[in-house]
Amino acid sequence: MSACWLLPLICALSAEADIFPLDSISNVSTYYFNYFYCNIWEGECQPHQDDASQQVPVGDLWPGFPQDYTGLLHQWYCSLGQCCESGDCRITNNITGLAKDLQTKLHGQHLVQSVVLKAVQGFINSPESNKPLTLSFHGWTGTGKNFVARLVADNLYRDGVKSECVRLFIAPFHFPHARLLDTYKGQLREAIRDLVLRCPQTLFIFDEAEKLHPGLIDAIKPYMDHYDNVDGVSYRRAIFIFLSNIGGATINDVALDFWHSGQNREDIGMEDLEHRLRAETLETQGGFAQSELMSDHLIDFFVPFLPLEYRHVKLCARDAYAARGLEADEATLDEVAKAMLYVPKEERLFSAQGCKSIPQRINFFLP
User: Fold this and answer.
1) Residue 246 in contact with residue 281, Cβ under 8 Å?
2) pTM
3) Is the pLDDT of residue 15 over 90?
4) Kindly report the CA angle at 86 between 82 and 88, in degrees rounded to 5?
5) Are residues 322 and 242 in the same domain?
6) Taking every annotated instance into account, which residue ranges of this chain make up the domain Torsin-1A C-terminal (predicted)?
7) CB neighbours (10 Å) of residue 128?
8) Sequence-ordered list of residues with C-beta below 8 angstroms from that of 24, at least 6 positions apart, any chain
9) Tell me: the pLDDT tens digits for 68-96?
10) CATH code, domain carrying 202
11) Does 117 share its domain with 203?
């Protein structure tokens, strides 16, 4: 079956040979070597940051490719067994799994569980949506922003964050030099367009988004707007998630006020946070405040991540042990939780590090 598609494909490539420069393929391969070596979020790596071509996966392979051949490639790709009768096998859209993961794996974040599930489910169930889904995650480091982005990717795509339909950008890693802003703009637009052409539903994650240059955000703003298409390409089935520490102080103040007043943490609602979170985002120096995403109201949901309490840290420690096939008793979990830093100091209420460092910390408690 695949052979019947391979011949016309070769002919197509011969007719348009000039649109597949070998140096572009080399750049893409080098980028992905670094990308997977760094293991998405976790690896220690030193990218060649002065080489602009290594910052984002350039999309030279696709933008000039004729639309007729794009359809041909899609059919050929499906003939190799990568597509299902119901659509593209790379896309799973397991909303039930997402709901379960948010409920059982995410601790102390009732607002996140509700808002993210509602937003993603509504988008998936509305194929005629008039704009891409744009979410902005806010809160202290370690409260679960990266973790939830992973859960979304894991449940919407067969290969999770390593899917061909998912792209992660880390602001200081991929866009470190202000002097290369114009280069980054072109590369980022090209990378997004490339992925949208290759996948019917895409996910873009921007970590440390507060460090993005406003000009860089505005360069991709049209892809998140209410347009039928941009230069002949529709971006309405894309999801954009921005992760930021902006608003952490505001979120913590609200949580602390509830605690001081004797109210339950679970009684904190979006009405207590959303307006203040938007206001702080607008007042903060950085890409968000100065970008048209804010002035044009293109962010669909501001998602607040509450600071974690001692009891939540213990649950994270339990999960970290379980991930290693170990079962820890209450005394051990207490020891791990006590080793964390808490604020305010006099009350030791909120974990200053969240759950991010727990997998490394439990190494000290292993026999």
Assistant:
1) yes
2) 0.78
3) no
4) 35
5) no
6) 308-365
7) 5
8) 58, 60, 61
9) 555 666 566 665 555 665 478 999 999 99
10) 3.40.50.300
11) yes
